[in-house]
Amino acid sequence: DSPEIITKKVKGLLNKLTLEKFESLSGKILEYANQSTEETDGTTLQLVIQLLFEKATDEPNFSNLYAQLAHRMLQRIDPEVRDENLRTRDGKVVAGGALFRKYLLTRCQSEYVKGWKVSMPENSGAEQLMSDEYYEAMKIKRRGLGLVKFIGELFKLDMLTEKIMHECVRQLLSNMSEPEEEEAESMSKLLTTVGSKLDRPEARHFMDVYFGRIRELSQSDKLSSRIRFMLVDLLELRSNGWHNRREQTGPKTIAQIH
User: Fold this and answer.
1) CATH number at residue 222
2) What gap in Å lies between CA 146 and CA 108, rounded to an integer?
3) Is residue 131 a part of any domain in this protein?
4) GO CC annotations (predicted)?
5) Which parts of the chain fold into alpha helices (H)?
6) I need a surface site. Which of 57, 85, 122, 176 has the fewest CB within 10 A?
């Protein structure tokens, strides 16, 4: 199939993906990814990962579902899918699950490094709120927050390492003198997602340092009250042993709703 057809078909499947339909639809998406067995450079697999990534970052409330899909693909990708441009240290071609993980990690890193800081239009009047510039700015911000949430969900499924999580948190907390709203909000989203898994005895010292900084930021007059309240919620979440009193939004089965 051509890239255009695969894009259309996989987007359609991702749009229909729910917990109830997970088994059947994830299998169909995997079939498209496995068309890369006919290639030597993993082009189709990279395309499917790109589409999955775009969907996951665009819909943060469902990032857990898309992380589960990525995990399923990692487990079941055809071992014959390979990229002859990528080699292990001993010269073997990277293939199968190792290739999927490599592509996914590369995508995460490139999007994260690219960043998502965006200047919201100054004038917040009704006319400005309806402008294309405003909608584009909101879209970039939403995808940035979606990216952080998706990275966190991938970590919870052991698809990204603890080292990567600590690097992300440290980077987002590095600017204490001139804190950025986007960084503070992203860090809050990330630690809300992964904090309970990161906060183990071996890493307690690092977490204590992070939360000392978070406490300081929660009292900073350089951040909006919305962000400061968000940081206070995060401090409370840790002090409550990472038990969130608010019900988490995310995918539910029909049985769970009724």
Assistant:
1) 1.25.40.180
2) 12
3) no
4) cytoplasmic stress granule; eukaryotic translation initiation factor 4F complex
5) 3-16, 22-33, 43-58, 63-76, 96-114, 126-129, 132-156, 162-172, 181-198, 204-217, 225-239, 254-257
6) 122
Domain end among 79, 114, 149? 114
Asked whether residue 257 is assigned to any structural domain, the reply reads no
**Which residues, 6 or more positions from 81, have their beta carbon under 8 angstroms from its beta carbon?**
33, 34, 36, 37, 42, 45, 95, 96, 99, 100
Residues of 184-198 as b/e, b for ≥16 C-beta within 10 angstroms?
bbbbbbbbbbbbbeb
Q: Is residue 169 part of a domain?
A: yes
pLDDT digits (tens, 9 = 90+) for 19-66: 999 999 999 999 999 999 999 999 999 999 999 999 999 998 899 999
3-state secondary structure 209-243: HHHHHHHHHCCCCCCCHHHHHHHHHHHHHHHCCCC
Same domain, 104 and 166: no
What are the backbone angles phi and psi of residue 108, rounded to the nearest 5°?
Answer: -55, -45
Chain segment 117-142, per-residue pLDDT in tens: 555 555 555 555 667 777 777 777 77
Q: Is residue 225 part of a domain?
A: yes
Q: Which amino acid is at 2?
A: S
Cα gap 107→102, rounded to integer Å: 9
Cβ atoms within 10 Å, residue 150? 29
Residues 110 and 176 occupy one common structural domain? no
Q: Which amino acid is at 249?
A: T
